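To assess whether the prediction recovers the assembly geometry, we first specified each molecular entity separately, as shown.
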Amino acid sequence: MPLPSTIKKISDTVWEIPSSYKSGMRVPARIYATEKLLHEMDDGVIDQVTNVAMLPGIVRYALCMPDGHWGYGFPIGGVAAMDADEGVISPGGIGFDVNCGMRLVVTNLTHDDVKPHLRTLVDRLFERVPAGVGSSGFLQLSHKEFRQLVEQGARWCIRRGLGWEQDLERTEESACISGADSNKISDKAIERGVDQVGTLGSGNHYLEIQVVRPENVFDRKLAEAFGITIPNQVVVMFHCGSRGFGHQVATDYLQVFLKAMPRYNISVPDRELACAPFHSPEGQDYFAGMKCAINMSFANRQVILHRIREVFSSVFGRKPEALGMHMVYDVAHNTAKLERHRVDGKERSLLIHRKGSTRAFAPRMEGLAASHQETGQPVIIGGSMETGSYLLVGVPSGADSFFTTAHGSGRTMSRAKAKKLYNGRQLQQQMEDRGIYVRSVSYAGLAEEAGDAYKDIDAVVDATERAGISKRVVRFIPIGNVKG
Amino acid sequence: MPYEFLEDVATADVAFIARGESIEDLFCAAADATMNVMVTDLSTIDRSLERSVNGEAEALDLLLVNWLQELIYYKDAQRLLLRAASVTIERGHKPLRLSGVLSGEPMNPQKHELNADVKAVTLHRLRVEQTPKGWEAFVILDI
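The predicted structure of the complete assembly is given in tokenized form:
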């Protein structure tokens, strides 16, 4: 990517584009990346992160994480802190897949225990966790029940026996963000989502069985605190969001904000950045509706976790408790949340938009569960299905990024190009030869997710550690994958 | 095909250009492009049922977004794969209006080879414009 001539190197992993770069920028833009990752970023990143810097009420910088790439409105990997009194809220800073995120569960099984059962496990997970275009789940809900679910999040699931009480405190917002109001969502959103609880979706959404090799434990004490205690331990990680429900909530409010902007004298360089003052009726309605999508996503991942426990239990003939299937954490990477941060020595209430970026709270920060007060927040980073994934943790030096880090490895190649270059069936066979058993509803979809279509996950994670925004705990390698 | 997918735009999503001699042709082509992201072979979709669509918007490009969103809505809400059967666009006064019919059938993974799900139609770089040969639209879909 050709870089602006005015880009300034702040450190080996932080680059600043001054607000003089483009007319209308209210703050500078900062990109977290090594020089190599910076040069590999696509054209969209600079354009989009500097557009974000134009939004009313933005504080300090518009940020982009090391996995940043071309999005719509915000870049993927984008972060923007808006002043809660004078700033805006923008659906484009959250994404259509509201609260898309990652969940990680451990087992007390080793790779050797799982190897003989791997195909059965993956095949049964493929049956029990519906994936792909328009997939519907096993839960049959009335519209009334679905409205309760989107207001109560994963708590609704636990009350119906779909999980363990301890799962709740291991989820951001204790698995139910307060202030969700189902009166602020459309019937269309409900109709799109009511049958989709417990489904993965498609695109880059997946469910993966992974192994922790002893040489991939970078901080033994923290790994043990998060439940990773035995060599070659098997874990399950999955990635999905709020499905058609969240997509419709975002779609509906984008239209509302487009109409509202002239009333508030707001103009934006890209209609995907449509926004409204946070404290306006439109802004508050969206915030309450978007929170329903956050809760739907927590509930969706909770039901999927329940299915995973059922499948492991059925294959190994032991209860999930006996298999030690404790959840490590559930992180979101498409959200806007009200948080308190210190800016220039003063504590302020900020609406932090994270679009393809993950909250990474340091030890003892408000909002962390008691069990994470000493460790800091676990951060789950999903890599491509061929390479590997990470468990990181938030660190005190993350204040400059509003305690935010990367969310994945980030794409480097478009889907259209990947589909031309790779063949899904061949890829499946090649992965199986390397010990990764994959099931997918779509071979074309599988080709789009080829490992080479992504950045080097190790380089991305290394950049976050060198920049002081998160720290490596464990690296996982995939052995089984259900691809949406 | 009256549409093409672009390789070097919108890395994680899907961008396409659709074309038509008339504005109505363009809307039908864009509908097929959107459905073609989800279904490999559009000819496998039988036209056994219909859904009426009505929409209005202040601008032509936003009217196109509304039209494409209907395909996505029916795909999730009723698990239907639909194509454009007919569409009429009134551009004489604002708001611009659209009325059309989508036809297709319930999704059947045994029959329809399914690809990536479309989450939404984005407004990023969206454009609908008249060209010397007719009409052209640029659309990015969120995947």
